Amino acid sequence: MTEPLILRQDDTGVTTLTLNAPASLNALSDAMLDALSASFAALAQDSSSRVIVLRGAGRAFCAGHDLKEMQAARTAADKGAARFTDLFARCAAVMQAIPALPQPVIAQVHGIATAAGCQLAASCDLVTAASDARFGVNGVNIGLFCSTPMVALTRKVPPAIAFEMLTTGEFLSADRAREVGLVNRVAPPDSLDAVTQALARTLAGKLTAAVRIGKRAFYDQLGLPLDQAYARTGQVMAENLLWRDTEEGIAAFLAKRKPDWA
């Protein structure tokens, strides 16, 4: 029996999704994109899941689009034009589903995260990386500028860094990726799982409703002018303060005790 392309494990509020196509370095094939889309749609409705970890099986996190599938599409009468347009639209929908999820999503990167694989990591809310991991948008090396991966990348790193990566095809080390803001935490390869899970459990230990409303507000305010961003987030904080569990959290802090959250 063929194993599923996405393996799911749930443990006390932390959901770990593993891209399970190690032979292709977890390439974003049609089937993999469909599996990711279905997994994210299910998690969006799952109140028991408080944090999501996204990782890859085998030697790498994700090597990007499946180039063999893309080449095969050229046999169509339109040389693959319709197929390519559909592919990038579906991939964009998967990437946009990540910030739209109520749960924080942590990309756990080992090996390589290249092209659309780097896009996948950059689309996540947080990124942990093995110290020997590498990040690249290296399509230019084969004559294909990574225009869609650029969207996620330029929202995480300074424009000059992104442009250098896109035009040279050179890779960033994990340490350099952390310096420029793509990665949050770097760990030795044999400690990456533990470091990622510790971060996930820290997030899972917070008031779930506060994290969820906060994540939504975080992305809402990013694209707004300053005055509108303050107006939006002020409304969110006022709503948050009216919750019973927030009132209890503040009371517990002032009384120097743990909150009794429902």
UniProtKB/TrEMBL annotation:
Coiled coil location: none
SUPFAM superfamilies, per the entry: ClpP/crotonase (SSF52096)
One Pfam entry name: ECH_1
Tagged with keyword Transit peptide: yes
Record has Lipid metabolism as a keyword: yes
Domain of life: Bacteria
Biological process (GO), any one: fatty acid metabolic process
Annotated GO MF terms: hydro-lyase activity
UniProt keyword terms in alphabetical order: Fatty acid metabolism, Lipid metabolism, Transit peptide
Annotated family: Belongs to the enoyl-CoA hydratase/isomerase family.
Function: May play a role in fatty acid biosynthesis and insulin sensitivity.
PANTHER family, per database record: ENOYL-COA HYDRATASE DOMAIN-CONTAINING PROTEIN 3, MITOCHONDRIAL, PTHR43602
Official protein name in the record: Enoyl-CoA hydratase domain-containing protein 3, mitochondrial
Organism of origin: Fuscovulum blasticum DSM 2131
